[in-house]
Amino acid sequence: MLTQVSTAELPFLGADVAADYAAARVVILPIPYEATTTYRRGCENGPDAILDASQQVEYYDEELEQEVWPVGIYTHEAIADTRNSPVSAEEMLDVTQKTVCKLIQDGKFAIALGGEHSISTGLVEAYRQANPNEPFTVVQIDAHGDLRHEYEGSIHNHACIMRRVVDMGLPTVQIGIRSICKEEADLIKEKQLTVFRAREIAMQPDWLERAIASISTEKVFFTIDLDGIDPTLIPAVGTPEPGGLNWYSLTTFIRRVFETHDVIGCDVMELAPIPDSVVSEFTAAKLVYKLIGYQTVAKGWLT
């Protein structure tokens, strides 16, 4: 079990390069919330594991040919923390919305670390409240459709996040999907939802450009469930599925979205650490640094 520490003591990348809040363009927001997981538990320990692993990530990004930490990265205190006491779904959504709304008002680029995927409902709602007249697309990387109306008696189950987004009236693009139930399959057909399935990605080289072209708005919110990635790269997830994106398909797609659209925020969800293994949390930490780097380049923050 990962030792719980204050995120103030374990900032992303390390204390040597941590920025204070006022100077930071990027805020890492840990949300160690877990209430509805249905297979492997432990995603409430995901944020700390990612922060811990980030201490080993190289500052220099060889793809971008620069260090991107000088953009200013601040690690927020954890919210909706279920590791010591229960937090209701309503409480989690409320504190998530309020916290992210404040980050948006302060002009911060927020990357949330989960925690279970139901958290993303609060994140998306915060951006919807902050930009009521500016539509955005939720681009989901995931093994699962997450389109059930409810699951195990809750509409705020981790299996329902994208149904909540669809109910908000926001456009969606789903990437890497390879597990859905009949209810979800019927909804995809009824709503004509945009889905790029993992088996199609593996067999159709033009999937990436078609996926980019399918994003109908300038603004994008990225929600990344780590089980969307091949489990040989990230085995430490709650609901693993064979197949999925490899590292370079993942990062190439993400970079192209940053280059062609205005990414307003991101989350990285569902890491459930495996004892005596660090590959999953390190890969997740490197992915978070990639998100920061792609936004930094897209916005020209260090030029």
List the helices and strands and how they pair.
Blueprint (H helix, E strand, L loop, with lengths): L25 E6 L14 H9 L5 E2 L4 E2 L5 E3 L13 H17 L3 E6 L4 H12 L5 E6 L19 H7 L4 E6 L4 H10 L2 E4 H6 L3 H8 L4 E7 L21 H14 L1 E8 L9 H21 L4
Helix pairs in contact: 1-9, 2-3, 3-4, 8-9
Q: How does this model look, in words?
A:
The chain is of the alpha/beta class and 303 residues long. It has a single domain (26-299), classed as Ureohydrolase domain (Arginase, Chain A). 34% of the residues lie in helices and 17% in strands. It contains 9 helices and 10 strands. The chain has helices at residues 46-54, 89-105, 119-130, 161-167, 182-191, 198-203, 207-214, 247-260, 279-299, and strands at 26-31, 60-61, 66-67, 73-75, 109-114, 136-141, 172-177, 194-197, 219-225, 262-269. Strands 4-1-5-10-9-6-7-8 form an 8-stranded parallel beta sheet, with helices on both faces. The chain has a two-stranded antiparallel sheet with strand order 2-3. The longest helix has 21 residues, at 279-299. The relative contact order is 0.18. The mean pLDDT is 96.
Largest sheet: 8 strands, parallel
Q: Which sequence of SSEs, written as H and E, runs from N to C?
A: EHEEEHEHEHEHEHHEHEH
CATH architecture field:
3-Layer(aba) Sandwich
Q: Structural class of the secondary structure composition?
A: alpha/beta
For the CA atoms, what is the radius of gyration? 18 Å
Q: In CATH, what is the class? A: Alpha Beta
Count of DSSP strands? 10
How far apart are the first and last residues' alpha carbons, in Å?
42 Å
The CATH homologous superfamily corresponds to Ureohydrolase domain
CATH topology heading? Arginase, Chain A
| Count of structural domains | 1
Which term fits the overall shape? globular
Runs in which pLDDT lies below 50 for 5 or more consecutive residues are: none
* Strand content bin: 15-25%
Mean pLDDT: 96
Number of distinct helices? 9
What topology, given as strand order, has the largest sheet? 4-1-5-10-9-6-7-8
| Proportion in helices | 25-40%
